Amino acid sequence: MRTTLPEAFPAHTPAVPQIFTIVLSHGPVTRAEIARRAGVSPAAVTKAVRPLIEAGYLVEEAGEDLPPALGRPANALRVDGGRALFIGVKVTGDSAIAVLTDLRCRIRVTRRAPLDDRSPDGVLATTGDLVTELLVEAEGFGVQVRGIGFAVSGDVVRTDGTVRYSPFLDWRDVPLGERAAAATGLPVTVENDVRALTVAEQWFGAGAGLTDFALVTVGAGIGCGLVVGGRVVSGAHGVAGEIGHLSIDPTGPPCHCGNRGCVEAIASDPAIVREVRARTGIHVADAAEALALARGGDTAARQVYARAGEAIGRAIGSLVNLLGPERVIISGEGLAAHDLFADRIQDAFTVAAFGTAARCEVSTHPLPFEAWARGAAATAIQSFIGSDSRSGGSGWR
Can you give the chain as a three-state secondary structure string? Predict the structure, then answer.
């Protein structure tokens, strides 16, 4: 389903994306507070927000308790979430989930579909059907969809939308952004799934207001998104934050990356299932059955979870020693087993963290699976407003 190319965001000065993002994340907020947070002059804020108000992206809230002569300078600004819509798509090895969000990344509609064919053609067909459904839903809101975000696990090049390698899909060098943009006629942003989730958490979730934090995800894999100096970073080669492939036990189990004893080879759901089978002799079918066995008191199964917690905690300790974030947020579907490994995570982190690094707050933040697709939508919003110099995605400018 092809669409008309949406209007451009009125980013007429370099300060506009930064200022708009501040209002998006912290609004309602006054011009004075925007100037303080952005480190720019009040005049620069006034110049930036005027066309955004005129275009309907920002709304000025009247200061009811202020006299008319003083009301305007202190009026708070907020983003009109209904001004634009975005689609976010999360692709896993066996399913796809898509969401329609507004400009404030609030989910309006959700769609899911099984992924019977993991080939690029199969994935594009399945996700294309989901996108078409959401575009029809958007028509009911009477608001145009401005972009689509795809979140895929693995090594993703955001600048051109290429999936260099995705282990769960068994993809190599797939131009997902280019193909999706050609099929829909909409701007497409493709991002690593954990980094996409980190963008959403930075703007709207547990990382809001923090300039330095890490989001560690546990589940089918072990991922990590990094925010340093207020920006989500991917590193020179796009793989910054891959703590899942820290080798913490050279004699440990083999990892699909080719090394041994990686955190992912010890603490991911598939690794836990394999180890529970090996230690107990019981053929648990999946992570849910392994978890039930451990909670039922099986000593060997509980030891597997304890070892997983220790591996995660040691990895977080190394991360904190290197980057010194204010907070480490643990999320992902693997949190279902949090009661079995939480203490081991904290103990191992405390031992591994050096000196004052141990003061870093380590917290858990359970998220519904839709949050991953919401993260994809957040990257589409990010690209639309031009708030990240790494942004581009296929078809933007």
Answer: CCCCCCCCCCCCCCHHHHHHHHHHHHCCEEHHHHHHHHCCCHHHHHHHHHHHHHCCCEEEECCCCCCHHHHHHHCEEEECHHHCEEEEEEECCCEEEEEEEECCCCEEEEEEEECCCCCHHHHHHHHHHHHHHHHHHHHHHCCCEEEEEEEECCEEECCCCEEEEECCCCEEEECHHHHHHHHHCCCEEEEEHHHHHHHHHHHHCCCCCCCCEEEEEECCCEEEEEEECCEEECCCCCCCCCHHHCECCCCCCECCCCCECEHHHHHCHHHHHHHHHHHHCCCCCCHHHHHHHHHCCCHHHHHHHHHHHHHHHHHHHHHHHHHCCCEEEEECHHHHHHHHHHHHHHHHHHHHCCHHHHHCEEEECCCCCHHHHHHHHHHHHHHHHCCCCCCCCECCC
Give the pLDDT confidence score for residue 390 in this predicted structure. Answer: 42
**72/31 Cα distance (integer angstroms):** 10
Q: Report pLDDT for 209.
A: 87
The pLDDT value given to residue 387? 80
d(Cα 352, Cα 355) in Å, to the nearest integer? 10
pLDDT of residue 73: 55
Per-residue model confidence as pLDDT tens digits over 141-166: 999 999 999 999 989 999 999 999 99
Provide φ and ψ at 232, rounded to 5°: -70, 125
Cβ neighbour number for residue 144 with a 10 Å cutoff: 16
The CA–CA distances, whole Å, from 12 to 6, 206, 390 equal 17, 31, 19
The closest of 212, 189, 191 to 202, measured between CA atoms, is: 212
Give the CA distances from residue 244 to residues 200, 203, 314, in Å, rounded to whole numbers and listed in that order: 21, 24, 11
| 345 φ, ψ (degrees, to nearest 5) | -60, -50
Under-70 pLDDT residues of the chain: 1-6, 63-74, 388-397
Q: What pLDDT digit, counting tens, does each position of 244-257 carry?
A: 999 999 999 999 88
Beta carbons within 10 angstroms of residue 53's beta carbon: 13
Alpha-carbon distance 333 to 250, whole Å? Answer: 27
